[in-house]
Amino acid sequence: MPGQYVGISDDGGRKLAINAAGAITTVTGVDPNLDGVYAFALIDAPGVVAANNFLSLFNPLASGRNLAFSFSATASYVATTSVVAASMGLYRTTTSTGGVDSSASIAKLASAYPAPVGVVRTGNPTVTLGNALNSVPPPLSAGSFTSGDAITINATSTANTLVLAPGEGVVFRTASGDVNQRWNLTIAWAEI
């Protein structure tokens, strides 16, 4: 099928793909075990007063792949003063259901990659929380802005990488918040 991998070449581990015209091409610069690299961005999500799960990435139990976390970025701003100083946390999860399945909006970082197995949910999905991985504080004064990279790793290597095995995931979450806050959340991962 066009755009799908058909094998691994013997010339340095480059993946072979069939392009839209049906010709065999190679995708260079990627680990031969890498199935694809994907990203998702949630833009200008309003804060809420109660605890909220803004964005989850989950590796389904029957996926047959591992998700190697590439990076996450968190940024927020307020147009008017905010009185709640609850940080946006990134946590491990062991379940993720409900909310809005936003997987159709996952971006492939190369068009030849197959469809991702990772499932992205927004709109306060139900998760089982694990340990916190990082956090970014919100801005409080009018016109202020905060940002931070939670994790950044090399997408083509799993050394020193957060790996999400089947049945594992991560979630961006606040324990409370303010409707004046706006959150921008980006996540990227490799599937191997």
Structural summary, described in words:
It is elongated and about 45 Å long. By secondary structure, the chain is an all-beta fold. The protein has no helices and 15 strands. The strands form three sheets. Strands 4, 6, 9, 12, 13 and 15 form a six-stranded antiparallel sheet that branches. Strands 8-10-5-14-7-11 form a six-stranded antiparallel sheet, with no helix packed on it. Residues 1-18 and 150-158 have low confidence and may be disordered. It folds into two domains: 1-32, no CATH class; 33-191.
For the termini, the CA-CA separation is: 20 Å
Number of E-state strands: 15
- Tell me the domain tally: 2
Taking all Cα atoms into account, the compactness measure Rg is 18 Å
Question: What are the SSEs and their pairings?
Answer:
Elements: E1 5-8, E2 15-18, E3 24-27, E4 36-46, E5 52-58, E6 67-78, E7 88-97, E8 100-101, E9 107-108, E10 119-122, E11 126-136, E12 145-152, E13 163-164, E14 169-174, E15 181-191
Structure in a nutshell:
This protein has 192 residues and is mainly β. The protein has strands spanning 5-8, 15-18, 24-27, 36-46, 52-58, 67-78, 88-97, 100-101, 107-108, 119-122, 126-136, 145-152, 163-164, 169-174, 181-191.
